[in-house]
Design brief:
Largest sheet: 5 strands, parallel
Structural class: alpha/beta
CATH superfamily: HUPs
Helix content: 40-55%
Shape: globular
Number of domains: 1
Strand order of the largest sheet: 3-2-1-4-5
Number of helices: 6
Distance between the termini: 57 Å
Oligomer: single chain
CATH architecture: 3-Layer(aba) Sandwich
Radius of gyration: 16 Å
Order of helices and strands: EHEHEHEHEHH
Length: about 160
Amino acid sequence: MRRIAVCPGSFDPITLGHMDIIRRASVLFDRVIVLVSVNAAKNPSFSPEERVMLIHKAINDCGLDNVVVDICDGLIADYVKNVGAVAIVKGLRAVTDFEYEFQMALVNRSLYSEAETVFLTTATENMYLSSSVVKQVAAFGGDISRFVPLCILPDIEKRLLKKPY
């Protein structure tokens, strides 16, 4: 039996912190689906299709053969059930992440009890890193090369980087 995990998120854009969690999940599970979640409450910088393309480039560059990418605009629990996944993988940076993610884990478990939520703690060097941080630094013309996979840096800079005066 193949053990499938779903790693959902907005990934707007994908960061080295995301990649660390995805890479580690790929060791734990036979197949990992990186799921671009469409959240109507957010105003993304990249379309879902663009985010999928960026993630594809990043996972191919790392040689993660058991990782695929998909899009979901519905309930994560329904998606997990439909693909036969046994786990939802979420990364935690700090205690503040835990409260929200714990609440979501309880909701997902009530909607589909056959999948467990697995929390992976971030690597120390990624504790401060988020897509929002990448967007903020880029908006002020800062160097984001330490925050995102280098293979997609030009794509992200083209969209986000504010040109100096």
